[in-house]
Amino acid sequence: MTDDPPGFRGHVPRDLSQRAHRRLIGYLGLSLPALLYAVAGLRPTDALPRWQLLPSVSAYYYTGAVGIFVGVLFALSLFLLTYRGYKGVLADRLVGLLGGAAALGVALFPTAAPHGLSEPTWWTPALRIVHYASAVLLFVSFILFSMWLFRKSSVQNRSERPLEKRRRDAVCLLCGLVMIVCVLWAASSMLTGAAIVVPEAIAIVSFSVSWLVKGEAHQPVLRALRRLSARDK
């Protein structure tokens, strides 16, 4: 959670895998919308038009991409439930537990089936409420990570933080704001009846970008470029 200048002896990550942990969470989320669309198109479902966006990301539970939908959410839940953040920072654990539990709720309690399909015999309208509540809590945890936890630092004055840290903070803040707009956009569908797959996908990508930025996923690329540049010289 904290990003400190060299030599600071405050909170430190529990181990070096924290950075990889964040990157895995980011890559999982980033791949989800595209994988759902691609697999559902390659494994078409009767009564659903092929290669056409469904009303919501959750509707892909009823397509040939159900394995991707449930599998990625379970993996995401596992990573969030085991995310420990920085030693002594309880908020990292609590928000991770909230997100992990919510991801399980989204996966285990599906929404209603798209038009033309039927829900499983065990499905009830109450499960749709649990699904919606879980989805809201999941995005709340994503927003808290992006706008609050990822932007915290032992250096209270933002202007005194390293330039790279300030840039990462700005990206995380932007991702959180985009997610808030997308959640409100999706919520407006209760009045308009419009599809919510686009705001959901944008929110998921925004969440993923914030985790990749926090995990410094760009650093391996920069190191590779520096090595190539050094060889050319």
Mean pLDDT value = 87
Q: Largest sheet, described in full?
A: none
Strand content: under 5%
Total DSSP helices: 8
- Measure the end-to-end span: 38 Å
State the helical fraction: 55-70%
Global structural class: mainly alpha
Distinctive features:
mainly alpha
Care to describe what's here?
This protein has eight helices and no strands. The protein has one domain (17-232). The protein is 62% helix and 0% strand.
What's the topology here?
Elements: H1 17-42, H2 66-81, H3 90-108, H4 125-147, H5 163-187, H6 189-192, H7 197-214, H8 219-232
Helix pairs in contact: 1-2, 1-7, 2-3, 3-4, 4-5, 4-7, 5-7
Quick structural summary:
By secondary structure, the chain is mostly helical. The protein has helices spanning 17-42, 66-81, 90-108, 125-147, 163-187, 189-192, 197-214, 219-232. It has one domain.
